[in-house]
């Protein structure tokens, strides 16, 4: 039975208040061709078993990551997750824990978040990290807002190597504020001049390392240039596994580091949920968005954990809040912490080495494809492959899928209005790729190119 609490008079009153003639007026921006003029052609009712079978039949049409050579990346990566992570994650005390606002009954939750923050600070080379955010893209937008708050400036420069989702999310958040964005063109070869664009109005420069097209850069000169002009350097990382080998953003002079934590503890999950990581320097901690768990002692001198420096919208007036994020991705943060704890420092380094070695092995095999070449001269586990003049990477990906291979992401998916990028295919190799996976991809590419 449907539950519709509003009466006809309620609806008439609401429409009158907003100046709409009828309900249809609320949808006038949706083209008539896109609206339904009759109910969807769906079965009216079925038993639970019949619905399960129908869904299973539809699911069998998918080309699963676990059943096919898989080289998709572009911000979400397939890594092996130990079975113990999911097993521990389903324990009742984690799934049904109290909110950390009640520290006396949430010590377990607060402690793992404290450990999570410690791991992120060590991983990024920063002084302090928060208790997580929604995902990497929203963390990036929050970093831009925080930078404007810290510097009291209004201009944010977005590198062309920044993931398009991070860019568009940041642009959307800032669009209706007095802050502005200057977005550089996509840069597969990492040749852009960011230093020359910094001026006295710049609040921050946001870059990604490794970049969206795979390139790795030494960010120290850029950090020095930002600081010389009073701006902040924000560094985004889409695969935290890379920090097992690549120098940390903090060591290269970053003021704020944001990242997507999906690679550790979480599967692909059709693109979500993600896990936003956020870390900064000690001197900016009071401007940092999100939750922060601190360590203290109770009246008996025992160690305990509490939420600290609570400057979010629940605690103070909205206009003084330092965050648009109302909560943290607690269970995802726990999965991340479990996976990273199981790996340890040595294990993370070894995992990163396996990823890079597989990427190098894949590039070597791809060299036999006539007309194709890898763009740039440095990468971690992902790189941009130029397929040749006039080639359409999107059509190539479709052809590979027909052959049972999930062969990367076409740049045109993110940049449909940049035809010069349409021959570019992003390929990611992780520890999950075998020699036979790579050989199958190369053989299929030779056939379709």
Averaged pLDDT: 92
Strand content: 5-15%
Q: What is the first-to-last residue Cα distance?
A: 55 Å
- Characterize the biggest β-sheet: 7 strands, mixed
Helix-strand pattern, N to C?
HHHHHEHEHEEHEEEEEHEEHEEH
Q: Which stretches are low in confidence, meaning pLDDT under 50 for 5 or more residues running? A: none
CATH superfamily of the largest domain: Type I PLP-dependent aspartate aminotransferase-like (Major domain)
User: Which CATH architecture of the largest domain would you pick?
Assistant: 3-Layer(aba) Sandwich
CATH class of the largest domain: Alpha Beta
Structural class: alpha/beta
SSE layout:
Elements: H1 8-18, H2 48-59, H3 83-89, H4 92-95, H5 107-124, E1 128-129, H6 136-151, E2 155-158, H7 164-175, E3 180-183, E4 202-208, H8 220-228, E5 232-237, E6 256-260, E7 276-280, E8 293-297, E9 303-307, H9 330-366, E10 373-375, E11 382-386, H10 393-402, E12 409-410, E13 424-428, H11 435-448
Parallel strand pairs: 2-3, 2-4, 4-5, 5-6
Antiparallel strand pairs: 1-7, 6-7, 8-9, 10-11, 11-13, 12-13
């Amino acid at each position: 039975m449907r539950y519709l609490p509003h009466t006809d008079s309620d609806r008439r009153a609401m429409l009158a208040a907003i100046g709409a003639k009828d309900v249809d007026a609320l949808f006038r921006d949706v083209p008539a061709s896109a609206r339904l003029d009759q109910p969807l052609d769906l079965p009216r009712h079925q038993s639970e078993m019949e619905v399960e079978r129908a869904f299973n039949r539809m699911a069998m049409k998918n080309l699963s990551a676990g059943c096919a050579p898989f080289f998709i990346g572009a911000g979400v990566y397939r890594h092996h997750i130990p079975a113990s992570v999911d097993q521990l994650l389903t324990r009742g005390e984690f799934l049904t824990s109290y909110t950390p606002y009640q520290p006396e009954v949430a010590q377990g939750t607060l402690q793992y978040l404290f450990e999570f923050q410690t791991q992120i600070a060590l991983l990024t080379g920063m002084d302090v990290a928060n208790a997580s955010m929604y995902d990497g893209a929203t963390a990036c937008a929050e970093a831009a807002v925080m930078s404007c708050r810290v510097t009291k400036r209004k201009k944010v420069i977005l590198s062309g190597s920044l993931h398009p989702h991070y860019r568009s999310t940041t642009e959307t958040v800032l669009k209706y504020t007095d802050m502005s964005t200057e977005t550089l063109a996509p840069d597969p070869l990492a040749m852009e001049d960011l230093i020359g664009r910094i001026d006295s109005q710049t609040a921050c420069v946001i870059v990604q390392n490794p970049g969206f097209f795979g390139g790795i850069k030494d960010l120290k000169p850029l950090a020095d240039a930002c600081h010389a002009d009073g701006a902040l350097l924000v560094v985004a990382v889409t695969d935290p596994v890379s920090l097992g080998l690549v120098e940390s953003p903090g060591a290269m002079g970053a003021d704020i580091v944001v990242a997507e934590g999906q690679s550790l503890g979480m599967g692909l999950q059709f693109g979500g949920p993600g896990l936003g990581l956020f870390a900064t320097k000690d001197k900016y901690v009071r401007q940092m968005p999100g939750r922060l768990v601190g360590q203290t002692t109770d009246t008996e001198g025992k160690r305990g954990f509490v939420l600290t420096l609570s400057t979010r919208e629940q605690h103070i007036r909205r206009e003084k809040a330092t965050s648009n994020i109302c909560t943290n991705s607690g269970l995802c943060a726990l999965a991340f912490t479990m996976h990273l704890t199981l790996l340890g420092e040595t294990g993370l380094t070894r995992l990163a080495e396996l990823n890079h070695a597989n990427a190098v092995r894949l590039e070597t095999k791809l060299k036999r494809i006539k007309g194709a070449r890898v763009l740039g001269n440095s990468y971690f586990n992902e790189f941009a492959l130029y397929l040749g003049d006039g080639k359409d990477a999107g059509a190539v990906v479709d052809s590979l899928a027909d052959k049972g291979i999930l062969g990367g992401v076409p740049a045109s998916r993110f940049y449909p209005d940049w035809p010069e990028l349409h021959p570019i295919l992003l390929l990611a190799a992780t520890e999950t790729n075998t020699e036979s996976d790579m050989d199958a991809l190369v053989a299929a590419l030779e056939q379709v190119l």
